[in-house]
Structures are given as C-alpha cells and as structure tokens.
Amino acid sequence: MNNRGSFLSSIPPVTLNLLIINFIMWLATIALDKMGVDLFKYLGLHFWQASDFNPAQLFTYMFLHDASSITHLFFNMFSLWMFGVTLERVLGAKRYLFYYVTCGLGAALIQELTWQFTWQNTLVTALAEGNALTPDQVKAAMLNGQIPSELIDRFVNSMVTVGASGAVFGILLAFGMLFPNMQMYIIPIPVPIKAKWMVIGYGAIELFFGLHGVMSGVAHFAHLGGMIAGFFVILYWKYTGTIGKGNGFY
Fold it and tell me: Would you say residue 245 lies in a domain?
C-alpha cells in the first residue's frame, strides 16, 4: 500500500485526475451498456450534420474509450502518464490542462472536417457493395432522391469517434518540441532515437494511414488534428515568451 501511495503521489494532479476520469468513464461505459444505455450515443463525437450531434461532444468524446477491450484505454493512458508527467511539471497545471483540452478540441474539429469531405463517398461505397451496384448507380439514386432519408440519417449517426488519442498526440508533439534531443527507445526499434524524430515519424505515419485508408477504423486525421493544435499553441507560447524560447526545434 505504501508503494502504491508513493507511485500515485509522484503523478502531478492534472495527469492523475485525467487518468482517473478516463478509467472511471471506461467502467461506466461498460456498466451502463449492460443496462441498455449507450454513452457513445450521447457523449461520443458525432458528425455535425447527424441528428445525434450536440456541441458538448467536442469535449466529452475525449474521455470515452472502446469498451470491448482495455487496449484502447491502456495505450492512451500509458502515453499520457509517460509524457504527461514531465510536461505538466514543465508547463504548470493550469497551462497543461488548457493545452490538453485544446489539443482534444483541435482533434475533434479536424475529424469533423474530415467527415465533411468524405461521408458521402463512404456512404456510396457502402451502399454499392451492399446492394451489388456501381458507385455511379448509387450516386444517381441519391441525386434522384431514391435513397430513403432514414437510411442516410442512420448512416450519418453511425459515424462516431471516441478516445483521448487526439489530446495524447498533442502531448507527444509538445514533448518533442520542448525536449527535441532527448533519446527515446521505441519498440521494436533497437536503437534510441531523438524525441523530435519520434514525433515527426508518428505524424508522417498518421498522415500516410489517413490518406491511404489503412486501419480505417482509427481516426488518423483526428490524431493529426491534436498535433496541429498543439503545434500552434506551443509556437504561440514560445513567441510570447510564456515558455522558454531556448527549447524546441529552433
């Protein structure tokens, strides 16, 4: 018990509370699902044109995780703990919390923008494959109003994103900008690499996966959105002298 207390007391308050809230929400998702209540429907991020959308979801979605396994939650929380502890101590609690939420909101907005440009093509592909039609036939049916509005609404409402990944990718970005030359070991790479190359590598992978539809169930552009939002926040803080100008890429 003493060892456990020492470990928890070593985690700064904002990071510790974020870890606790995410874990509690994960348990609540499992428990409520057994009672027929789908938290994703109310708190997950929906496409802004969906009937289930409400603006609060831009914030609440980042505290939900896949309830079917602990993997999604574990990797996000492990990364939050690994990099967030140092970052909170450097930025201070209030600034760190502002940064975390801003990255999460940035990820949500980029995901909304991605859906805006892709939802129709995704629907066309799904209807074509499910009804032995060509995409052109489906598009013609949509233009002629032959696709029931209920079907479209059901599809749009099925587009949901949850998870702290966008905010966590922002944390990774900040770590790479503030400690660019710190040596990091990343499995399965057998040699240490600098934090700045780790961040650039993660960003490049997410961009490639997003553009080529790799692991399509993952919101790659939301991850990039968290990094983009974080980049501009850190850049602004450096420009205004809020954080030391001596750190970072330049």
Answer: no
Phi, psi of 89 (to 5 degrees): -65, -30
Q: Is residue 246 part of a domain?
A: no
Instruction: Please state, as a whole number, how many other Cβ atoms lie within 10 Å of the Cβ of residue 185.
Output: 10
Residues 6+ apart with CB under 8 A from 78: none
The model's pLDDT over 196-232, given as tens digits with 9 standing for 90+, comes to 888 888 788 877 776 655 665 678 889 999 999 999 9
CA angle 22, 27, 33 (to 5 degrees): 125
How far is residue 2's CA from residue 92's CA, in Å, rounded to a whole number?
27
Whole-number pLDDT of residue 86: 93
SS3 46: strand
Band (244; pLDDT cuts 50, 70, 90) = low
Q: Give the residues across from 79 on adjacent strands.
A: none
Domain extent, residue 151, equals 2-240
Q: Work out how many domains the chain is built from and give that number.
A: 1
* Alpha helical stretches, state H, the chain: 2-9, 13-34, 39-43, 57-60, 71-91, 93-130, 135-143, 149-157, 165-178, 195-212, 220-240
- Cα torsion through 146, 147, 149, 155, rounded to 10: -170
| Inside any domain, residue 248 | no
Say if 247 falls within a structural domain: no
